Amino acid sequence: MTSKLEAWLARLSDPSGPNPQWSPAPFSDTELALLPKILDAAGRHNIRPGLVRNLGLQLRMAPEAFVSGEPARSRTVIDALMARANDLRLQDVARAVLLSNAAREILTDVAESALPVVLIKGVDLAESAYGGLHARTFSDIDLLVRPQAEEALGQILASHGFTAHLPSKKRVEHTERQWTRTDAHGGVILVEVHTDLVHAPELRARQTLTYDLYAAPAAGGATPAAKLVLCALHGATSHLFGRLQYVVDGLMVARSGVDPTELRQRTLRSGALLPVATMLRLAHRLYGCEPSHALLGALGPVPWAGLEQLMITPAMVLSAKSTHRWRLLPQRYMYRRLLRMTGKPA
To answer: In this structure, are residues 155 and 145 in contact, taking their beta carbons and an 8 Å threshold?
Structure first.
């Protein structure tokens, strides 16, 4: 069952504006202590920019729909809530600009060396699908590289002051390496270098997304269809859709315009039929996204679709960062088992 707080997350998390699919009851005078928690939940789900924008809209256009009762009693709490929200939004933007600038420095050298490397996820999605760095939070820089070019990319990262971190023996087979450097403000900039977006070996036997499948000219380049597959595989294989952001990523890419024929082709090449179907279904059910619904229909039959819908539900995604998320762990791990049974032949 979805809580009031989770319903408001669904209502306020669409970067394009308040989500009409959800009309939660307002918080009462006795529930004012819950209001700051909405920002905490938005941070855990990585959907703070959209939520802060929509919260401001909600309070300007229909404050009584958000908090009922005597306005004078809630005014102090709401003012403090918006002050904190705007402070956090400025911090998010500052961090995004810092990471974007670092990424551009790296990519300038990558381009000069003609290396098969492409920027993925955070910085790229913010600029290509969300409308700018102000609209999506991210905490690192992600690069997808052809394995043969990983050493040359490492030399470029080292020349920019980054230090490689060797993976533990347990994770040595995962297709991800980390590089860090201290930023000018005493923080850390993390670069994650991927040779396959699907990290777990047991899943990579069924699902895969390499540079050649994602960005190489022979595959069609990094188109919106490619980015939708990437978002779905990242949300499913790395996180089991454990944050609302993974659904919102798919929502925004679908709205940007995706060719349905190309999407099906790329989905089948990567063994990503189940992850893509899950993400599109969630985008439609949570946000009423008609482009996602149309793309889901264009995928054709999806094996285990009936069971998949029971495993990853809108309520599960909304509560994935709540204190009662442990109740839903069995169905999330059943979904992982489905991933191991579907996709490309092992």
So the answer is: no
